[in-house]
Amino acid sequence: QVQLVESGGGLVQPGGSLRLSCAASGSISSILAQGWYRQAPGSQRDLVASITRGGNTKYADSVKGRFTISRDGPKTTVFLQMNSLKPEDTTIYYCFTSIYYDDGVQGFWGQGTPVTVSS
């Protein structure tokens, strides 16, 4: 089993910054991709940013130029640097990791970390 532990959420004023972290532990063989999603109450979970094993990144149009996804050397921790935050960025953020095993690919979610952008 794999555990994803998120941290870094909180309250920030508009225009401010936050850095989310997601640390993976457990039975990790080969990470294929990691990403951050966000979900408002009553809405679907939408992709914010993702990074593949090869380092290719993808961003939602609404965060391009403001958010940056990165990871540490061992690639077990993924970060989301969020700058120029707006009130509409307020919601719960979830990290996601897909891992390749001999018997197939499995996806894992973090528990979610809240981000509130408000003055």
Key descriptive features of the protein:
single chain; 119 residues; mainly beta; 7-stranded mixed beta sheet; 4-stranded antiparallel beta sheet; 0% helix
Describe the structure.
With 119 residues, the chain is mostly beta strands. 0% of the residues lie in helices and 60% in strands. It contains no helices and eleven strands. The chain has strands at residues 2-7, 10-12, 18-26, 30-39, 46-52, 57-59, 67-71, 77-82, 91-101, 104-109, 113-117. The strands form two sheets. Strands 2, 4, 5, 6, 9, 10 and 11 form a seven-stranded mixed sheet that branches. Strands 1-3-8-7 form a four-stranded antiparallel sheet, with no helix packed on it.
Describe the secondary structure blueprint for this structure.
Elements: E1 2-7, E2 10-12, E3 18-26, E4 30-39, E5 46-52, E6 57-59, E7 67-71, E8 77-82, E9 91-101, E10 104-109, E11 113-117
Parallel strand pairs: 2-11
Antiparallel strand pairs: 1-3, 3-8, 4-5, 4-9, 5-6, 7-8, 9-10, 9-11
Overall body shape: elongated
Main sheet, how many strands, which sense, barrel?
7 strands, mixed
> Strand content of the residues, in percent?
over 45%
Please give the alpha-carbon distance between the first and last residues: 40 Å
Number of helices: 0
- Low-confidence parts: none
- What structural category characterises the helix and strand content? mainly beta
Over all CA atoms, what is the radius of gyration?
Answer: 14 Å
Order of helices and strands: EEEEEEEEEEE
Q: Quick check: average pLDDT?
A: 94
Query: Could you estimate the helical fraction of the residues in percent?
Result: under 10%
Number of strands: 11
